[in-house]
Amino acid sequence: MVIKKDTITVTSPLLPDLDAFHALLKEVWDSKWITNNGSFHKRLEEALCAYLKVPYISLFTNGTLPLLTALQALRITGEVITTPYSFVATTHAIWWNGCKPVFVDIDPANCGMDPDKIEAAITPRTTAIMPVHCYGKPCDIERIQAIAERYGLKVIYDAAHAFGVEVKGKSILEAGDLSTLSFHATKVYNTVEGGAMVMHDAETKKRIDYLKNFGFAGETTVIGPGINSKMDEVRAAYGLLNLKQVDEAIEKRHQVAIRYREALRSVKGIRFFDDMPGVRHNYSYFPVFVDAEEYGMTRDELYFKMKEQGVYGRRYFYPLISTFSTYRGLPSAADDNLPVATRIANEVICLPMHHGLSGEDLDRILELIVR
Ligand code: T4K
Q1: How far, in Å, CA of 145 to CA of 172, rounded?
Q2: Which residues line ligand 1 (CB under 6 A)?
Q3: pLDDT of amino acid 230
Q4: Residue 306: count of CB within 10 angstroms of its CB
């Protein structure tokens, strides 16, 4: 796809300096080692552990494969409680593992799974909970953990949006049994395509490293039905460079959020999130929620008005995953089970949010919304 010059897109990739990348490519070329746990792969894992304040991480080729692998690694079967308000990859990972997704409604305060709704969805077949830190907003990790412990369930967090998010100085990626990240081009931190899994101990890290390499533990031993989802050296080198500039990019996003909030606070019928106390946010998305009656225009009317003027917000996450053909027959997919998610999916527009937005871009965007 070619982006027209005056178009403002919902995001734009953080790109490393081309000369610096070229220098690292030269190292990769010279080494003649281009994938399969090479030195850049190791360096990026170390650098990410330090940046994210986590003990162990395993790099992947995208953010979907660690989800699939996490369910495999924990030998999840039966039913998995999850949210319908996410990117389809979350639920697809459950389905691809031969498990049944069970949708519960979300909390409008953070668009994450509503802990009050989890217990009613637990059956004797439930083995895990898979919440999403949607837009990088932390889920209620303490309450989810308490429920998981009470019922003996595993918790796998889809933290695709939560790169660098911390609560009271601690990484959000420490919550649950495993957390997964996406380093896709559209994310705060990207390796073009890429992803990772965060775990608590060395044994699990070893097992995950085997599973992402076909299950190989050495040249002739296969410990289980693994897959191929290793990050290559070119992307790992790119990732090392992007890590150096990600804090600056997050700060630029923060400034964009400040500007949006200042301009939109007095607009009737537009709701948005403020920062949560004690949380280091990453400003990965800036969702606004349109109350059609109060605002005097529906979400879709505003969305298409913006689009006509070259401002491409996105309706993440509309339609709900539970409405797609694979899932809509599930009892938990019924609209009356998911009233909050259904309403929010019909109200949301994610405004353009990235490190490269100029003051003029923001003026153009806000002129279309403020009334
Ligand atoms: N879990 C969650 C909660 C997720 O949100 C995602 C992915 C995953 C799991 C799975 O992770 P991955 O396997 O993807 O690593 C995008 C992304 O493809 C997807 O990664 C992301 N979530 C999802 C929320 O959004 P689209 O279909 O909206 O992307 P696309 O191609 O329309 O791009 C959006 C805009 O970004 C474009 O209008 C312009 C800009 N862009 C995009 C690309 C690819 C660029 O400027 N340059 C680019 O190279 O799905």
Answers
A1: 13
A2: 9-13, 62-64, 86-87, 89-90, 132, 158, 160-161, 182, 184-186, 195, 312, 314, 316
A3: 97
A4: 20
Query: Looking at residue 3, what is its pLDDT?
Result: 67
The widest CA-to-CA distance across the chain, in whole angstroms, is 67
371 CB neighbour count, 10 Å cutoff: 12
The 10s digit of each residue's pLDDT in 128-158 is 999 999 999 999 999 999 999 999 999 999 9
Between CA 140 and CA 148, with CA 142 as vertex, the angle to 5 degrees is: 105
51 vs 54: CA distance, rounded Å: 8
Give CA separation, 107 vs 89, 251, 343, in Å: 20, 27, 11
Cα 312 to Cα 80, 156, 352, 361: the distances in Å are 34, 32, 7, 12
Nearest CA to ligand 1 atom 50: 186
Is 4's pLDDT higher than 80?
Answer: no
- Over range 120-130, report the average pLDDT: 98
Instruction: Check: CB of residue 220 under 8 Å from CB of residue 214.
Output: no
Note the pTM of the prediction, 2 decimals. Answer: 0.98
Q: Which atom of ligand 1 is nearest to the CA of 317?
A: 24
Of ligand 1's listed atoms, the one at least distance from the Cα of 183 is: 15
Closest residue by Cα to residue 48 from 191, 167, 187:
191
236 phi and psi angles, rounded to 5 deg: -65, -40
Kind and range of the H or E run holding 287: strand 286-290
The DSSP bridge pattern shows strands 311-312 and 8-9 to be parallel
Residue 13 pLDDT greater than 70, yes or no: yes
Q: What is the pLDDT of residues 247-269, one digit of tens each?
A: 999 999 999 999 999 999 999 99
Q: Specify whether the CB–CB gap between 323 and 342 falls below 8 A.
A: no
* Residue of 12, 110, 135, 186 best suited for mutating to test ligand 1, as the one with most atoms within 8 Å of CB: 186
